Amino acid sequence: MVYTIARLLLGLMFLVFGLNGFLHFIPNPPVIPAAAAAFMMAMFVPHFAYFVFGVQALCGILLLVNRYVPLALVMLGAVLANIFAFHLTMWPASIFPMPLIALALWLLTAWPIRSYFAPLLTAKT
Question: Does the model's pTM come out above 0.85?
Fold first, then answer.
C-alpha cells in the first residue's frame, strides 16, 4: 500500500514538473540566487533542459502506469542526484520541501523492489 502510494505520488510529481519544463504553468520563484540562475541559463540556452524535463515526464508516466518501474527509478535516481547537487551547492535554502519529498518518495518506491537492482551491483560480468 505504501509502495503504491509513493510510486503514484512520485510519478505524479515528476510528470507535473517534467511537463512544467515544456509548458511553464508553475511560476518561477521571485528571487533566484545568481549561481542557480546562471546554471539554469546554461541548461536552457543549449536546450539541454528539455532532455532532462523529457526524462522526468517519461519516468513519471512509467511510474503512474506501473511499467518498467526499476528502469524509471534508475533514471530518476540520476535526476535526483543532480537535483540534490544543484540545491546543496547553488540554492541550499530551497532543499526543503520538494527535493526532500522527492527523495523520500523515491526511497519508499525503490526499497520494496530493491532485489531488481541487485544485478546492477555485479562487479564483473
Answer: yes
Taking the C-alpha atoms of residue 72 and residue 106, their distance in angstroms, rounded to an integer, is: 10
pLDDT at site 125: 85
Do the domain assignments include residue 52?
yes
91 within some domain: yes
> Residue holding cell 505524479?
12
In a domain? residue 89: yes
CB 10 within 8 A of CB 106: yes
In whole angstroms, give the CA distance from residue 92 to residue 74: 25
How far is the first Cα of the chain from the last one, in angstroms, to the nearest whole number? Answer: 35
Q: For residue 66, how many C-alpha atoms fall within 13 Å in the half-sphere facing its CB?
A: 6
How many structural domains compose the chain?
Answer: 1
Domain that holds residue 87: 2-25+33-117
